[in-house]
# Entry
Amino acid sequence: MSRFVTVGAAQMGPIQRSDTRPEVVERLLALLHSGADAGCDLVVFPELALTTFFPRWWVDDLSEADHFYETEMPGPETRPLFDKAKQLGVGFHLGYAELTPDGHRYNTAILVERDGTIVGRYRKVHLPGHEDHEPWRAFQHLERYYFEPGDGFAVHGAFGGVVGMAICNDRRWPETYRVLGLQGCELALIGYNTPIHYAPDPDQDRLQGFHNRLVLQSGAYQNGMWVVGVAKAGEEEGCALLGESAIIGPSGEVHATCTTEGDELAVARVDLDLCADYKETLFDFERYRRPEVYGAITGQRGPLVPEGIREGRAGESEASNDTGEEYL
Ligand code: CDV
# Structure
């Protein structure tokens, strides 16, 4: 059997600070049109797709950054996206900064069906970077100042399948895919803004593309799901952002990629039924997973290094235990 969804990974080139919301929405509408021309059912936009990546700047008072946040969705400036989606019969995924009526701030993504209705919302769980101004950096990464973390990963019945969302740094964490996978996710949508320069360890700069592919491909394969990774790319306010948006199949193979650092659509005809080839064989969770063995340790936040190993005396203690139970 086959359940096909044609998906467009709508990579965006940089959004500068001076770019207005209507200008950015025009670019999104052009990508939505390209998606319709390519037969897409779903067009996936990146993380924080309506603004420049503003956590790269410090402000003394968060309210100085209010204009980067959406207080309603759709709002007057984003309404054209919803109207166009309905008119074209093309759904979309959109990342943006959310400011709730009671003053909470999230790095958010929504899933909009082909009739223009919002069917899912996700708030970023793994917020990277730092909370305080760190002037030694070439640019800040203040997501932990600008946003509160979301409280979980959910799936949505949409586009004829089971769809989940994650945002940028979430894609580096195996828990993201596994928590989605355990809910039967067949199609994970992940927008990102990945600076090439990683200030805490610049040795990683040359590996950004490799690590991006590594996590998207392994997440897809190990959970038998399609993964759509979509970048905001190029030179944004002096910060070089990784492109390389890609659509990955449940085999871990790449089905489509972007090759520029600008606005570009990479399209793949996604067969959701391919997921079963993995979910019902090698990664038949019900049959092969051993949660009773993982549980004690995966519930920990940080490493739980057995005492003997921590002190450099491997072999003299319970360090050789392999169940984790004795560590507790
Ligand atoms: N926007 C992000 O979450 N960026 C992170 C960087 C800071 C490591 C990423 O995972 O790409």
In short: The CA atoms of residues 225 and 328 lie 34 Å apart.
